Each structure stands twice: as C-alpha cells, then as structure tokens.
Amino acid sequence: MRHKPRELDRMRLTEEETARLREINRTREQEIAERVARMRLEQESLLRELHAVGMKIEYVVDLIGMSQRYEQAIPILLKHLVMPYSDATRETIARSLAVREPEVQKAWPILVEEYRKAPMGWGIKGPGDINEYRLGAKNGLACALAVAVTDETLEELIDIAKDRTQGESRLLLLSALKKRRKKNPLAAQAIEELASDPDLAKEIASWRKRR
Fold first, then answer.
1. What string of pLDDT tens digits covers the 211 residues of the chain?
2. Which residue from 79, 147, 86, 149 is spatially nearest to 118, judged by alpha carbons?
3. What is the rounded CA–CA span in Å between residue 173 and residue 195?
4. Read out DSSP for the chain?
5. Contact yes or no for 102/69 (Cβ under 8 A)
C-alpha cells in the first residue's frame, strides 16, 4: 500500500520530536548502565570469590548457560544464595545453580527452604531501584529445583508443585515431571492430578496436543 505525499509528511517526525526521542533513549541507556553498575557493586564479593577459583567472568549472570562445567563455583554460589542480596542477584545465583552437579543435589534442603520463603509478585528487584518490577528469585529457585531433583527427592518436588500458595513459579517445576512421566509412576500420577490446577493446566494440556 502506497502512502500519499501528505500522509508521508504527517508520518515524519519533526525535529523536536526526533530530539525528544533521542533524549528518551539516552536516558534509558543511562538508567540501564547505572543499574548494571549497582548490580556489579552488590555482587563484588561474590565475583571476587568466583575469580579466586578460576572463574573468568565479568558478571555472575555469565554463568547462566555456560557450556563448560563450573563445579568449583557451586559451594560459593550456595553460600551466597542464603545471603541478603537483592531479588535480582538472588535470581541470578539461583539460575546459576540450575546445573546437574552432585553438590547442588546435596543442597536440596537449602534450595527448598529458599524457594518456599522467596516472595512473589512485584517489588524492588535490584539495589537502588525506585520502581517495582516482577520479582524473579522464586522462578530462579524453581529452575534449580527442577534440575537438582533426584528419584529420592521427587516426592517432595511433587508436594511443592501441588502447593498452590507457591504461585505460578510452579510452572518451572513441571519440566522435571514431564521428563520422568513415562518411566516414573509418581511423576505420571502427579501430572494427572496437576492437570486441573488453574496455574498449570494450560501448560500440561499443551503436552498432550504435541503427542
């Protein structure tokens, strides 16, 4: 569809509008840079300990999705997981623990405790924030639980998945059940029971459609 010349003129930004847009973008970029700097400052002691065991990373978030193992970092991450960091740093630490390492599996009780008490909803997410964002530490801990679960701890994970007071973060626990549903009767039964849960029903129903 071709626009007429007058329509094109109306669509063009004026110099004032262009300048205003650039200023908005500059302000946003500055806010992001300042937020990242505050996060790095908060994580300074954690990064120092990670560097001491050979982790050559600039930010803690660099661990997430790292292709090589970092088992030497697990004890440090577990120690810092229970420290009073901001929600954003706690989420990063928790997601960094979503790896299949024996030390993480042994720390199952710690992960469960931290998950259960992690707040939900909206709040102050990072150090120095003045605006509220959706909190994410609970989601990060759910990811760690889904990866760390073993046959011995599966029953407790199922109990957590059934606990509606834990909110929508339970969606992230389902991957552990989906993975085991054909081999483990407990997982299969749990999926059947959770299929009517308002927070989980849509996700579970989508599995059946893909069969």
1. 454 545 445 557 677 767 776 766 776 777 667 887 899 999 999 999 999 999 999 999 999 989 999 999 999 999 999 999 999 999 999 999 999 999 999 999 999 999 999 999 999 999 999 989 999 999 999 999 999 999 999 999 999 999 999 999 999 999 999 999 999 999 999 999 999 999 999 999 999 765 5
2. 86
3. 14
4. -PPPHHHHHHHSPPHHHHHHHHHHHHHHHHHHHHHHHHHHHHTHHHHHHHHHTT---SSGGGGTT-SS--GGGHHHHHHHHTS---HHHHHHHHHHT-S--HHHHHTHHHHHHHHHHS--SEE--STT--S-EE--HHHHHHHHHHHH--TTTHHHHHHHHH-GGGGGGGGGGHHHHHHHTTT-HHHHHHHHHHTT-TTTHHHHHHHHHT-
5. no
**Cα 104 to chain centroid, rounded:** 17
Two tokens at 115?
Answer: 């998950």
Task: Quote the CA–CA distance of 45 and 30 in Å, as a whole number.
Answer: 25
